[in-house]
Predict the structure.
Amino acid sequence: MIVFQSLTRKKLETLLLPLGGPRPEVRARVRAQQLFQWVYQRHVTDWDQMTDLAKELRVWLKENVEILRLKERQSHQSLDGTHKFLWDLGDSKTVESVVIPAALDSKKNFPKSGFAGLPQDERMDSERWKRLTACISSQVGCAMACKFCLTGVQGFDRHLKIQEIVAQIHELRRLAPITNIVFMGMGEPLHNIDAVIDACEILIDQFGLGFSRRKITVSTSGLVPAIYRLAKESPVCLAVSLNATTDEQRESIMPVNRSYPIHELLKACDYYSENHTKYVTFEYVLLRGINDSLEDAHRLVKLLRHRSCKVNLIPFNEHPGSEFKRPEDLQVRSFQRILLTSGMTATVRISRGRDILAACGQLRSLFGTARGSTRHRDWKDAIAPTAASLTSQTVEGSGSTISG
Ligand code: SF4
């Protein structure tokens, strides 16, 4: 069986083309639009209920195509309204998504049962929400082994399929009018770039889930060749997890820096902002005594001041067994002030869902693999073909050469 959410609308058209009829191209295009609307906008999962489709097509769909529903294994409600969902992927693997609500009227408290416990009409009322951000996963585990991240500790298990990425949003959309999507859950999205690019295409398709491209942010730890590829193949926004101001410091907490040092990463970010979106967001997780000194702040200014970007400072979210500590609030404010007084845009992220381990860097699946697994090294093999295909290829518009 083909899984519906694995198909972009173009791919669905190609699938429907051999079904024939007069003017088959036009027919396939219209049918694909209708199907996308039934599934993604009306949330209908029974082919027989799609009443404007020909009976033969419905029969063919029943025999050949299925619609994926993710089963909710567990969910947890934070005191601040953040809600974490653990999805069963059907092969004994699980992944997490988090919904982070920002209410329009901050005086409207969440009931004890939380965001998902609101009555349906209230939950689905877009007037109630300033923002409903869904943080979704792209892999089971992660191969990048960033030292401060709980998912990194777990190691890499497998990539999510296109349909498993799309279905996270599809399920959440049934629950609430999600406004923003960030690929900041489990996994390095650019390690699974083929699936992420197709999933984004479905998420922004006007007949599909219909998100604005500006409301989708893909976050990376710094897989440089894949940043160039994303710039060429997807219109979404980019966030880069920088977290250090020298290569030595970055290598000590993010092994990816050994392959793609800071100057190469920043060059790729310049390409992204110059040729694609207007700016790149740099995430900077502040770790006490590691990268949170005022000298670090000044070095960060030097690195980023002339770039088209904004900086998001994230005081570290401690998790069980972590060797790192969260800096004092005063230190965070002093760090931010240095950035602001140099004319940069710098915000401090108020972490949500810390009490349920739903905050940044705190996600992991129920059946994780252990750190030290050789799977931590898989990303180099996975990214190698991309790097090789881009090496010594001149980047359009920048006149520079990517070293893979
Ligand atoms: S921070 Fe992101 S890239 Fe690094 S290990 Fe965690 S999930 Fe992977």
Notes: The pocket of iron/sulfur cluster is lined by residues 142, 144-146, 149, 151-152, 186-188, 221, 241, 361 (CB under 6 Å). Residues 71-390 form a domain with the TIM Barrel fold (CATH 3.20.20.70).
